[in-house]
């Protein structure tokens, strides 16, 4: 795979090149670009299959570089220091990112995933990411989720509730569909926190628009529109009632 590294930090680029030589010999770094103003031209000229893209750079950030390259014809692995908003946007589209300093095992896993990426899904993921970047408020109504069978693009309002299953999450969708995704419930919660979802139990995240009835109790329970009964933990009861009865 031909690869281009775009990052304004010289030492970070050198470290990544070294890691790729040691752990990902199938990746050939054909260019390192330290100036975001030149990044789009470099990618257009070299047409790599893979781009390692820093998010925070002078002049243009990584998302703005991608905007200049639409339609995106390459796999992209973001590299970043911790940036909560940026990471949330990337998770929302199920694209890969690496936190600096880059870990060798995480790098290998990300490269292997890029090698297996399907072009048609990549286009949808990039579309979701750039929509999320352009409209940070919760106006984007689809979310990309990695499932056992591949990647699923799911309208947010079709999700009724989510339950944890170890390091996986089971999403129950409308029309009695279920989807098992390789994300923890906490990760799903973070992706959906700007929508009308609430964690009501350590094992449950619910769409508040799909709550049919609340039954009183120590924590109480919820009856969802599909007939599922969801326990509410005592510690989350007050927050739930505030969401259900905002004027009280």
UniProtKB/TrEMBL annotation:
Any one Gene Ontology molecular-function term assigned to this protein's record: phosphorelay response regulator activity
Record bears the keyword Phosphoprotein: yes
4-aspartylphosphate, modified sites: 54
Keywords, comma-separated and alphabetical: DNA-binding, Phosphoprotein
Domain Response regulatory: 2-115
Domain of life: Bacteria
Entry keyword annotation includes Cell wall biogenesis/degradation: no
InterPro entries in the cross-refs: CheY-like_superfamily, LytR-like, LytTR_DNA-bd_dom, Sig_transdc_resp-reg_receiver
The HTH LytTR-type domain, residue ranges: 143-242
Protein name per Swiss-Prot or TrEMBL: DNA-binding response regulator
Species of the source: Filimonas zeae
